[in-house]
From TrEMBL:
Keywords: Coated pit, Cytoplasmic vesicle, Membrane. Residues 1-20 are annotated as: Disordered. Clathrin is the major protein of the polyhedral coat of coated pits and vesicles. This is Clathrin light chain. It comes from the Eukaryota. GO terms for cellular component: clathrin coat of coated pit; clathrin coat of trans-Golgi network vesicle; postsynaptic endocytic zone cytoplasmic component; synaptic vesicle membrane.
Amino acid sequence: FKESNGPPDSFAAISQVDRLQSEPESIRRWREEQKERLEQLDANSRKQEAEWKEKAIKELEEWYARQDEKLQKTKVSNRVADEAFYKQPFADVIGYVAAEEAFVNDAEDIFPGTEWERVAQLCDFNPKSSKQAKDVSRMRSVLISLKQAPLVR
């Protein structure tokens, strides 16, 4: 085994020395300064990248914590709603909803002039909660006006 500190080819070492000796002092100084500047820029970029990674990890952990909190709240509210649903009569029937049960109970007590009130119970009059693609504002306004002033026969 030959151990050497330079290039394995002796001619390459000589040409490298010749090149270094033949270049002017100003170019050599510029090359060294440029090398130092590049090393400093690399160090700054590595430092900045590490800071960004730390910040991203921190934000990701906060996001996961918020998501977990929302999930826990949703689970609790779903459990409460489930318990309330199963306490109702006929809850074992699949697809039986509390609003439908209330509508059926109210249907037994049909009085003239309460039709629009019963229809209004089934409609969502909050325009922001509606996620439909169609514009139903006109229908909503008609139903509200009929609820406030029913038609007289």
